[in-house]
Target: MFS transporter
Amino acid sequence: MTDCAVEPLYPDPAEGRAAAVRRRLALVLVASGMFMAVLDTTIVNVALPSMRAHLHASVSGLAWIVDAYTLSFAALILAGGVASDRFGAKSIYLAGLALFVAASAACGLAPSVGTLVAARFAQGMGAALFLPASLAIVRATFDDPAERARAIAAWAGIASIAAAIGPVAGGLLVDGFGWRSAFLVNVPTGIVALAGAWIVVRADGRAARSSGFDAKGQIASTIALAALCFTAIELPTRGMASPEVWGAMAVTIVASALLIAVERRAAHPMVPLAWFRNAKFVAMNASGTLVYIGYFSVLFLLSLYLHGVRGLDARQTGLAMLPMAASLSLGNVLAGKLQGRLSATRMMTIGLVTATLAGPAMAALLETNAPWAFVIVAMAGFGAGTALSVPPMISTILEQVPGESAGVASGLLNALRQAGSLLGVAFAGAAAVLAVHLSTALTVVGVLAGVTYAGAACLAAAAGRARGYSAGERAAVR
Model:
């Protein structure tokens, strides 16, 4: 007789529970990277006055302390997604998180503005690596579509919690321990997350390691995204007459044209062009871009309005905006609960229509000095409606691509959303400069949010009627 391995007739319930615990722990660990990145961004905004006093920074220097992170993050996130698929999501996640933690330590120890800006560039590079890799890990860890959708909602909810507590935590840290603590707090947290992910997260053997490397596409996409970000960052302060702005716009256009030409001829394109023949995939990515244009234009101008018109300091502004941030967390929880009861596109449409109405209403209520209770309701509707749309959007996009391409799909979505956020901030900044009063600018931005969210809702509804790729078609366009 020969020995043979016999599968047990009934699975061991203990093994099933252990696997479920491991999956949930992996989710918490990879989401912790996103938590730190979002928390760091909100804390840094609160710490700017203290940095200015201790580092003798100019207004331009403060702007680059904030924008250096955004610029490197947006420019490299698509490349980070490609690296995740090529070298393995776990490896790239750990490398990106290690770089982010080391850069955070460098930020906390920076002796000058120039050193701090350079360290912020490195922070953005680390985040550009681990963010798309974290979603690829979630995609590989949760095979069941319903469980995966709930995991993505939890992943987004953890990031929303960071956005909610960031202004308050930042005020406490900066007041109690100084501005350097805004960066150094990432070091012990990051080390724990690194060690945990190393042990718990399983390497995904499906990574497309043998695929060719599209070096020309990588370079063209990085230049195009960096130039677009520079244009959006500098346009509100330099104005349309600036030769630097016009030069950056020209570089954006030329690099984008080169990227399209290179990708059409590449044997192994960075982003498979066949993906853009999938109407559902295109609609979801376009919807995400429009949402971020509207949301970040409101977020930027709302903080200016509360400080400049209502006379609130940084901590009071953070507390005043807490209902919107908290509703983001609750909206993600609600999205997870509704998974399976509503289709992804229907859930998105409901959330986006809610935010379409709440955004302009919030601006109108603030301008007319309505009771604060009404403003809170509008803020909560805007935040919850936005949050309700994000998890199903991400889930649908990941379902339209092969599992081994989840990193680049996540990188593409986040690159488009980051570009949308920068365009939203640029529009809001221009409205603040051109309008006679900040209250007028807030109204204009509220209308813009209504238009962009309405457009996103129409795209979500259209995606519900569009035919996505089947499993065989997804495999054919790797």
Remarks:
- Residues 103 and 123 are 5 Å apart (CA to CA).
